[in-house]
């Protein structure tokens, strides 16, 4: 009789038991309610995850935020798409965490550190989850996903089912296929949403758009429409156009100032704004997928497959068309903006619109986002306006979500204390 099928069954059974026991109880040998150790797995390599680690280190030094009595430990950093993860099951020291943050989470930055004997490498987020379940020294874990891709959604589902909290600024999972990724990530059993998933930073960054939307939903008011302008690369480009810059120069300026993705066509395609609007639609219960969203791409299909250098070289040929649209806007005393609109039936359109002086959108600066929510009780719209992008706003939103999930993870302690 072959032995390997039995071994596979035993291994899977052991994993299932480990996951479900972890979801109910602290790690063996630890006292959950006394220690309240929260291990953070930081996913991503950009400026936001590095700034988040620095902010967490500052918090632990000064205890400026109440995480329901929890103490935070960074136990893993990195991204499977760009070299994997560094993990320390007992938690990196804050000196190590700050060194990693300052050096792009590179392992080489710890070569002179004497306390790296337990630092391990993992190729995937799933490997990190398994390591923490088996060897982790923290009582509860939160994955903070700041990556710019959706390659690891299955690992996130695995982690949530094992009792990990999920904090997301990564929009790709929530804007993916509704049944395959969104529902499996967000719901325990539809329509019951998981309390272990929080993603305020995905829409509006530091602007409290999702909390406002959910408070209005809770009142029973009839939501009739949402209109948004996000402070992003396209907003910067449109403001530059209104100030007289040709479209080609505005795009290059946004790129050189680090406001766009590595390939600015990702921004100009409108997909970033479309993902945000899709998340809002799903928050209202719509099962819309990206294929149903009407998105205006600011570049023609003929430029989509060019090399980056050829793309930049070809941009001046678009200047005249944008100048003509701006002339129409000036003639009608309106401003031309790239916005998103969500109707009551779940239909979404993202693209260029004209706004007159009576609109809340008329005097927006490019650094400002605006969220207008029209309801039966508020036909003139509830309007949120403010700095909706930038590293500081995103980090603040992530910290708030970490604090919220820490309280969820330690609910049993507070009910019995």
Automatic annotation (TrEMBL):
Q: Name one Pfam family in it.
A: Homoserine_dh
Q: Report which superkingdom the organism of origin falls in.
A: Eukaryota
Question: Which residue range or ranges hold the Homoserine dehydrogenase catalytic domain?
Answer: 208-402
User: Which principal EC class is assigned to this enzyme?
Assistant: oxidoreductase
- Any Gene Ontology biological process: threonine biosynthetic process
Under Enzyme Commission nomenclature, its number is 1.1.1.3
Entry's InterPro entries? Bifunc_Aspkin/hSer_DH, HDH_cat, NAD(P)-bd_dom_sf
The record's GO molecular-function terms, alphabetically, read: homoserine dehydrogenase activity
Tell me the leader sequence span: 1-23
Arranged from A to Z, the UniProt key words for this protein are: NADP, Oxidoreductase, Signal
Cited SUPFAM superfamilies? Glyceraldehyde-3-phosphate dehydrogenase-like, C-terminal domain, NAD(P)-binding Rossmann-fold domains
What is the name attached to this protein's record?
A: homoserine dehydrogenase
Give the species.
Saprolegnia parasitica (strain CBS 223.65)
């Amino acid at each position: 009789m072959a032995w390997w099928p039995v071994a596979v069954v035993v291994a899977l059974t052991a994993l299932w038991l480990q996951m479900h026991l972890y979801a109910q109880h602290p790690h063996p040998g630890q006292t959950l309610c006394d220690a309240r150790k929260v291990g953070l797995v930081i996913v991503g390599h950009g400026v936001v995850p590095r700034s988040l680690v620095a902010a967490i280190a500052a918090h632990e030094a000064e205890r400026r935020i109440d995480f329901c009595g929890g103490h935070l430990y960074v136990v893993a950093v990195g991204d499977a798409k760009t070299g994997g993860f560094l993990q320390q099951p007992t938690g990196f020291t804050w000196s190590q965490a700050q060194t990693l943050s300052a050096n792009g989470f590179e392992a080489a930055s710890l070569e002179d550190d004497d306390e790296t004997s337990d630092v391990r490498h993992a190729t995937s987020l799933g490997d990190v989850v398994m390591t923490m379940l088996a060897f982790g020294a923290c009582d509860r874990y939160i994955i903070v996903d700041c990556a710019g891709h959706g390659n690891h959604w299955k690992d996130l589902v695995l982690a949530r089912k094992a009792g990990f909290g999920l904090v997301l600024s990564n929009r790709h999972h929530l804007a993916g296929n509704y049944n395959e990724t969104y529902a499996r990530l967000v719901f325990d059993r539809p329509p019951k949403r998981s309390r272990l998933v929080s993603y305020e930073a995905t829409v509006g960054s530091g602007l409290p758009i999702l909390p406002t939307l959910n408070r209005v939903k809770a009142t029973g008011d009839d939501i009739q429409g949402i209109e948004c302008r996000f402070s992003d690369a396209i907003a910067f480009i449109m403001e530059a156009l209104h100030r007289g810059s040709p479209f080609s120069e505005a795009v290059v300026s946004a790129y050189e100032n680090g406001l766009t993705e590595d390939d600015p066509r990702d921004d100009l395609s409108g997909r970033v704004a479309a993902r945000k609007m899709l998340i809002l639609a799903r928050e209202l219960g719509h099962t819309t997928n990206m294929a149903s969203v009407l998105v205006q791409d600011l570049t023609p299909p003929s430029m989509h497959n060019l090399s980056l250098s050829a793309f930049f070289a070809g941009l001046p040929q678009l200047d005249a068309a944008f100048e003509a649209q701006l002339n129409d806007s000036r003639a009608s005393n309106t401003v031309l903006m790239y916005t998103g609109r969500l109707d009551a039936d779940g239909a979404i359109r993202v693209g260029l619109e004209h706004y007159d002086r009576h609109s809340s959108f008329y005097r927006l600066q490019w650094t400002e986002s605006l969220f207008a929510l029209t309801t039966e009780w508020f036909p003139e719209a509830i309007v949120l306006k403010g700095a909706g992008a930038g590293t500081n706003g995103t980090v603040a939103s992530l910290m708030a979500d970490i604090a919220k999930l820490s309280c969820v993870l330690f609910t049993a302690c507070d009910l019995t204390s």
